[in-house]
Amino acid sequence: MKKEIILGYEVERKKIKNINLRIYPDRRIYISAPLNLHTDYIENFIRSKKGWIDEVQKRLDNLPKSTELQYVTGEKLSYLGRLYELEVNNGNENRIYFNNEKFIMIIKEDIHELKKKIVEKWYFEKAKVLFPKIMDKYLNLLGERTEHLSIKKMKTRWGSCNHRKKYINLNLELVKKPIPCIEYVVLHEIAHLRHPNHSRDFYHHIEKYMPDYRQREKLLKEYRIY
Ligand SMILES: [Zn+2]
């Protein structure tokens, strides 16, 4: 197999009869051509497809990213490990409420950023009530105390702990996960107050208070942070 660049595209020479051109969802282009086909011929082929390539790539660029919500009726929002349908209606206010069956959003203007903000604020309000409750439960259980709890969006971690300052951060995204997972993260961070590293003692300490912590950790790993 041999690769060359023709008109800025990577072309792979293979034992095939015809030229193949594929565009992948990530807009990558794959071209393969017969081993001895003249370069001029491949150039002409690519030129003849140029308009089509541009068109397909443009369409791909405009597609919503799979993880990004559009906030339209019928879409699903996660909350405490379950998915609930979203219903979007026009009205005289901007708000969202949850009736234990679905999310109902009322908006004055159909603006993506606005809808995103309404949903995130709702999640934040819920986290602000729930997370401290779980924290208190485990702080009492372990006989520990913290100076500060903050809830914020984090890209790569579910939580963090500054054991010297006794600060704990929890990822807002946790509010979308099942409560047993939130409890595990809370206990994990509280356990860091005593054991800053992920030592064997650290996990023994956790296990004392949560014998099924491995299952909860596994369940959490099935959810991606995005
Ligand atoms: Zn840790």
From TrEMBL:
Pfam families: YgjP-like. Residues 17-222 form the YgjP-like metallopeptidase domain. Transmembrane segments: none annotated. This is YgjP-like metallopeptidase domain-containing protein. It comes from the Bacteria. The lineage of its organism: Bacteria, Fusobacteriati, Fusobacteriota, Fusobacteriia, Fusobacteriales. CDD domains: M48_yhfN_like.
